Amino acid sequence: MKNNQFSITPTTHQQKIAELTRIGFLPSEFHFANSKELWQHFLQLSYPESGNPANVSQFLAGLLATQDTAVPDFLESYEPLTTEIFYVVALQLLQFEPELDFKPNDIIQSMKKIQLPFLMPTKWDQTTIIDAWYLLLCTHTKNGQTLLDNLTGRGFLTPLYDLPAAQKPIFFNGKSIAIFDPTKLIHEVVYVESSLDTDRDQQADLLKVEILRPGDTNGHLKVPAVYTASPYNQGTNNAWGDQLTHNVNVPLAHKSATTFQTNTTPFTAPTKTITTTATTKQATETFSREASYTLNDYLAVRGFAIAYAAGIGTKNSGGMQTCGSPEQTKATVAVTEWLTGKRKAFTNPTDGTQIKAWWCNGNVAMTGRSYLGTLATAAATTGIAGLKTIISEAAISSWYDYYRENGLVMAPGGFQGEDADVLAAETFSRKLTAADYHSIKPVFHQYLHEMQVAMDRQTGSYNDFWRARNYRLNLANVTADVLLVHGLNDWNVKLNQAKEVWDHLPNTISKKIILHQGHHIYINAFRSFDFSDIVNLWLTNKLWEVANQADEILPAVIAQDNINLETWHPFDNWEESGQQQTWFLHDKSLINAPQKNAQLQTFNDQQPNQTFTDFCRQPAQWQSTMALTSNQFSLCFKTGTTKDELLLRGTPMLQIRVASSTDHGLISAQLVDYGMTKRFNEAPSILQRNGIQLGFNWREDDLREFKLATRATPYKIISYGHINLQNRHNAQQTDNLVANQFVDAQFDLQPIFHHLAIGHQLGLLIFATDFGMTQRGNEPITYQVDLSGSQLLIPTVQRS
Amino acid sequence: MKNNQFSITPTTHQQKIAELTRIGFLPSEFHFANSKELWQHFLQLSYPESGNPANVSQFLAGLLATQDTAVPDFLESYEPLTTEIFYVVALQLLQFEPELDFKPNDIIQSMKKIQLPFLMPTKWDQTTIIDAWYLLLCTHTKNGQTLLDNLTGRGFLTPLYDLPAAQKPIFFNGKSIAIFDPTKLIHEVVYVESSLDTDRDQQADLLKVEILRPGDTNGHLKVPAVYTASPYNQGTNNAWGDQLTHNVNVPLAHKSATTFQTNTTPFTAPTKTITTTATTKQATETFSREASYTLNDYLAVRGFAIAYAAGIGTKNSGGMQTCGSPEQTKATVAVTEWLTGKRKAFTNPTDGTQIKAWWCNGNVAMTGRSYLGTLATAAATTGIAGLKTIISEAAISSWYDYYRENGLVMAPGGFQGEDADVLAAETFSRKLTAADYHSIKPVFHQYLHEMQVAMDRQTGSYNDFWRARNYRLNLANVTADVLLVHGLNDWNVKLNQAKEVWDHLPNTISKKIILHQGHHIYINAFRSFDFSDIVNLWLTNKLWEVANQADEILPAVIAQDNINLETWHPFDNWEESGQQQTWFLHDKSLINAPQKNAQLQTFNDQQPNQTFTDFCRQPAQWQSTMALTSNQFSLCFKTGTTKDELLLRGTPMLQIRVASSTDHGLISAQLVDYGMTKRFNEAPSILQRNGIQLGFNWREDDLREFKLATRATPYKIISYGHINLQNRHNAQQTDNLVANQFVDAQFDLQPIFHHLAIGHQLGLLIFATDFGMTQRGNEPITYQVDLSGSQLLIPTVQRS
């Protein structure tokens, strides 16, 4: 176990005393006879399971103070408290086991190894004990939560539930703590009236919102709102999605000018809105178990109201699913407008009873991963007031880059044949309410048909349909502070989706990015990393407006190491300037100096029938054949084995001079880390089912962490890119292509942040059909690559 | 989706009215103008999310009454209610989707296909609507819970939380319903004083018990207790277990008389017990999140108190882990003795404050799987009063058959090298309390060492150590009714563990067994099977003593089909008499008539070095090589392809005449279902994470179901057995064995309940080393099998 905490904020001694007093660890006036008595006092309070002296004594009797002295014996002795004793006991409180996890007789070394913060005062007096105890409460246990959160999950904070609302929230080390009774959370439903009519029924589309807010809001406490827009959370139509999935075994066509419609019929403004007949502070509808994000569950008992909305085209809302259109963004924003007092909502769709978000302090954050984070990004690009920050995880910033790439139809990794229409149908959860669906069916099917034309799988080019779904065009409008999270192995929502946002956010805002070794996953339950604490610090700063130095203490970039488990590094930016490196192609090598003479290498994209079928069924088989065997359908270039560990950062760029044997063609490329080693498993392991208590008798999460694979593998793909040779200038403009005539193409591969271990080789694979992502025509096209006109560039390459 | 419900109990019309009234679906005096009005009343109450007419109307407006009429339009019409309309709406309430899951215009056929119970009254008057509505509430939704439980999870029953304790519990269709407020559950810890001193400190071993009981017990309600004894639930020492795991790559030895100690030093009775200094009704220690069984979670809000105890040798208890010894059984029983008023407990280990289970009605059940179920079985064999029933899942009934077999050291499938000592160390969670462990360490290590001798991995024979751990010797004592559950693919705790109990329980008790297609898993969250309801019906009968016909309506045997998904069949017994079949061995065939002439076939157990290493590392590779290729190390015999589907039931028996080329040897056998087909996946799939609400705002479970594998496989092992050729009479007696001399051995294979599909073949594999389970000496032993003296018998073989 290695601990990585970035969210512990510097606190003065006086402030520590004040905070310890407020949560009950110190009486308001305290006089302890000596430092051991103070320490004993702290220990006794660390067993929230009982206040009875006999039970607490049993707890203390179980703790070792030294290798062979129990705490009660030490307390009775005349021995003074030492650093060793303080931390031998502290580590047991943090759930570490003597001998197994740490050496009681070499405690400092053990703590350094686990990366636990600690103090080494020259004297253990009451001042230093208070400092050390405070730090200990901020320190993570063996199971991925701070000791304070561990105590919280065992009931330590319940006495504070009954504090007057005016004395809430309470912050500890710059973070809001769980003093809000989960059994008193108010669950309520409202219907926000948008200014849209996407189902073309003249009526303004209503948006169902599910809200959880602290019971204390009824006692005049105003709280910020954490809002998650999730098109999935009222249910999905998976069978429909499967049925619409496109055949991808179709040939690429030569492109000429596009003649068909590239957008859908515009929506008009609603002509009918609901007339307010009454106002109320009480909703009349509740909900039982929302599809929740466990990060929000963590926040819900820490004083943040949580709002979920699925948006237009979902169950119990109006409108249609449009897959990322400006209307969906407007619907997303409408909820924030209501939360901040700028839009109407009603307790039901019909009788005109209006309800305000009177309990909201006007500050809103958005959270969520994938489509959810996408809508957070979309909302932020409108510059809407009141949206103070977004925590956008694995989010799409341009739908073109999700379903297309450089003039090609492109699948999100693992979802061959998916497209905007498939996702629209899958998330059109109005279908789940049978009679509602019956009424909207023809209108939605008409829209779906229009989408299918406009999204244009024929040319794969960028057009009006995709421009309308490109949030990056509006990044300059962003006023919310931004915390991005993305998996360095996310082949579904690819890394350029985050990198483009990162690079182009206005510098008037505060921004942070966390890059982890997962694929398309959440990271809030990792043992090695304090993500939930970081989010708490961040939101306490942005929404409660507490000056906790969140902007200053959190690194701009945190990147998880891909060689060493449970290791997270801080950086100032994704790239660092002045450290770019170019590799030239020669024979089968990537070399440092250019070669003057033209050197041609060829490959042919066609597979024998059976091989083609096998590769389609199992892209992993195609991938390993390509990466590991010499074959006719790809070219492979490698560096020599590295003498130093290399850290490769930024967006690699491939320049290639190529000729296709026909009037159309594509080029794909992959960057490969070659070297036999045990790499991280693709998915984190569950260390403990329900191992994380998000509050006391509240919801739970599974404690997770990456482990090394049990077997060594010879390679790993670290980046890739694809281009249609008729889109050499950009994805919109069609360039001509003549058979066997060389053209120069230049395109970005997916951004990287990758440690190449000593003795490994960097590899570059060049090929055409990508069985996992591109369409698969299996045409007999021969490609010639002129190595002298081809090169690979990585913006930052560092030796370590 | 196919629904299988066995727990709906016949109820009179008057009783239905009384129950519907009690849960709030009918007012105590009701007069509806007509049947449609009554139906509308029921529908309106089926939206517990709101009592507001406008919100409820929105809910009704979403329901289709016919293919193209919404419910409100139908209600306003003069059309009468029909079977079709009732069930089109009903299926929507059950979360089925029109067109996707059922055909609104062919509703009867759809319901038959899904196996939903329904009524077809000639007239839909108020009487039949009440009957049909009642049945509907008992019917499972698409997501594996009754409609009533679905409504419960959405808050329907919360108004009943505040009923006076005297009016609780409430039963619906013979089952206790969730009217106990989960936020009012009392969590308390007591320390039961056993009459054991297994840690040899003179003091009676104390046993920590964690109890959840309804808040209503404080209001004079007495409730039954559901008790789970789990040695795991205070934590485990996995690293220690790994470290103790035995090397299994050791040769079998010739056995002569055993000379060493075959039992551990006896424990003596404690000389010191706690003196009661005070009594209390209030515990002084609580707990936060116990390691719970979700079936118990389901029961906890239905009025059953839940008790967990880890027993001797676990964290915060006294004593040592003994892996199944009589002392562990006594410790297990001690908790029941306290629950039934026959033993003392204290609020803490030191000050003598005694506490009674004053809230318990004196009726106790035990639940749990694997080691947990094992201890339930162990407890039942003591015949202890007050233990009314055990629900024993995948339980061990003789530890010899868990770690040994017919004179051989044998691994539980997947756990090569595990033995009683390993499990004792793993579960000795006193180690997790460092100072406590420090005090007990030498005593436990001494015991562990004695175990390691007495369990005897040298001969693998049955001895005093194992006799002490054989609960079957006491099955005649059982007075509790027994519900057994076992996976037909459980290679960990094997099927004979359940079959032996099933066959030898006294016929004075009521017994049931459920055989499912899982391996070593829980089955309480399956979509297709009403296990939780069955348990509720069973426990309501046994613990609340409600005459709900549980014994009569539940089939003696329920066996899940291995060919058809989501299909569960009732049977009267495991076997059926008079249908046994014997196969004789000839050439490579299993044939129906004996062959007179001796026919010898030989195989050699030794593998080339690399193959041996590979097979050790990957037993699956050994298994497929053996089952599918002709090889030197096994013999294979197959029937012809079946013309009818065969149902094979009971304990197969293999008679074999064999000679080993040396003075020791073993014979292993497997029964194989040969035939290329898509079989069930080994593990069920999670259909919906947290898809099952076990109460309202209470704990959750993941909805699961088996799916078919995506690929066809050529075979599946359905049974197996192993014997040491020196244990031809029994596991205790050593028979002589002379090289190359033929001996007759006869041994049982694991019990089966298996459908052999048409066109498949039954196969018998005979070999020696089982890489997954036996020790692996890789000796150059040649075995000769005389086919004329060998035959296979299956007790029940049925054609269908």
From TrEMBL, chains A, B:
<dbReference type="InterPro" id="IPR008979">
    <property type="entry name" value="Galactose-bd-like_sf"/>
</dbReference>
<feature type="domain" description="X-Prolyl dipeptidyl aminopeptidase PepX N-terminal">
    <location>
        <begin position="1"/>
        <end position="156"/>
    </location>
</feature>
<protein>
    <recommendedName>
        <fullName>Xaa-Pro dipeptidyl-peptidase</fullName>
        <ecNumber>3.4.14.11</ecNumber>
    </recommendedName>
</protein>
<keyword id="KW-0378">Hydrolase</keyword>
<dbReference type="InterPro" id="IPR036313">
    <property type="entry name" value="PepX_N_dom_sf"/>
</dbReference>
<dbReference type="Pfam" id="PF09168">
    <property type="entry name" value="PepX_N"/>
</dbReference>
<dbReference type="Pfam" id="PF08530">
    <property type="entry name" value="PepX_C"/>
</dbReference>
<keyword id="KW-0645">Protease</keyword>
<comment type="similarity">
    <text>Belongs to the peptidase S15 family.</text>
</comment>
<dbReference type="GO" id="GO:0008239">
    <property type="term" value="F:dipeptidyl-peptidase activity"/>
</dbReference>
<dbReference type="GO" id="GO:0004177">
    <property type="term" value="F:aminopeptidase activity"/>
</dbReference>
<dbReference type="GO" id="GO:0008236">
    <property type="term" value="F:serine-type peptidase activity"/>
</dbReference>
<comment type="function">
    <text>Removes N-terminal dipeptides sequentially from polypeptides having unsubstituted N-termini provided that the penultimate residue is proline.</text>
</comment>
<dbReference type="Pfam" id="PF02129">
    <property type="entry name" value="Peptidase_S15"/>
</dbReference>
<dbReference type="InterPro" id="IPR000383">
    <property type="entry name" value="Xaa-Pro-like_dom"/>
</dbReference>
<comment type="subunit">
    <text>Homodimer.</text>
</comment>
<dbReference type="InterPro" id="IPR015251">
    <property type="entry name" value="PepX_N_dom"/>
</dbReference>
<dbReference type="InterPro" id="IPR029058">
    <property type="entry name" value="AB_hydrolase_fold"/>
</dbReference>
<feature type="domain" description="Xaa-Pro dipeptidyl-peptidase C-terminal">
    <location>
        <begin position="536"/>
        <end position="793"/>
    </location>
</feature>
<dbReference type="InterPro" id="IPR008252">
    <property type="entry name" value="Pept_S15_Xpro"/>
</dbReference>
<keyword id="KW-0720">Serine protease</keyword>
<dbReference type="GO" id="GO:0006508">
    <property type="term" value="P:proteolysis"/>
</dbReference>
<keyword id="KW-0031">Aminopeptidase</keyword>
<dbReference type="InterPro" id="IPR013736">
    <property type="entry name" value="Xaa-Pro_dipept_C"/>
</dbReference>
